[in-house]
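Q: I have 284 residues here and want to know how they pack in 3D. Can you give me a structure?
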Amino acid sequence: MKIVVFGATGQIGTVVMQHLLQAFPNDEVLGCSRSAKGVHYLPFNVYSDDWSALTNVHVVVNIVGIIEERGENTFEKAHVQVVRDVLKQREAMGNPRIVHVSVLGADVKSKAEYARTKGVADALLLAAQNIAIVRPSFVLTRGTAIVQKVNMIVKMSKWMMGIVPMPAHFLNPKFQPVMGEDVADLIVKLATSSECGIFYATGPKVLTLAQMIAYSKSKIKIISLPKWATHWLFMLLTLFKNPFMNRDQYYLLASDNVHDNARMEALLGRKAMDCEKFWEKEIK
């Protein structure tokens, strides 16, 4: 069996490659990305390289994605164009099964371009055959974006004598973070499964941003500010480059991000991993 992984050197892709190589030691697992190095990797620009090197493929795992647009690297290009290209090249690759990593909250009607383009890509894939789509909540790997955001808030609190004013509509939404190992194990199972459709990858515990901040070793007091007093200020700030958030992240942090994970757990044959130790270790 030959498994090709696009986006193999990103935060999620790195974990997925480790689990695939361990699960299929006698098969060919090929990680493709522009920064790929090593015996199991192929330097490959999914936007422009010649796909003729990818033949006799049994499974394609697509993990290509960005959380922030930079220059020509747009959400439309990274999320939609890549999926269009995978589908276009599918027959030449050998009509492989496709396992695609999307996001919980993917919606063609979303105000956030990140989630909207993920929704468009999912729709394209769902119109095809032999497709499995993984929709995870925040994927917990070392240094992941949500950890960076929370640690930034913790750092801000130290500048402000332990007090952090926060918009209430950031504090109330519920999230269901999932360990990167669970996402990787789910992809391993889906690589050889015949099951298709959407698989929601969420952890066992629902958290709010305030609860994530509470894992800090510092004593922090959060002052909740009403939405009417902060919305337009944040909208203005997102027009400029800033380290805290862009407009897409603003919308995503202000919306619930939870879902039942029964289908994931049934395929894994176990419960989703507990995330407590991760938060205790990663939040400063």
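Q: Anything worth noting?
A: The mean pLDDT is 93. The chain has one domain: 2-282.
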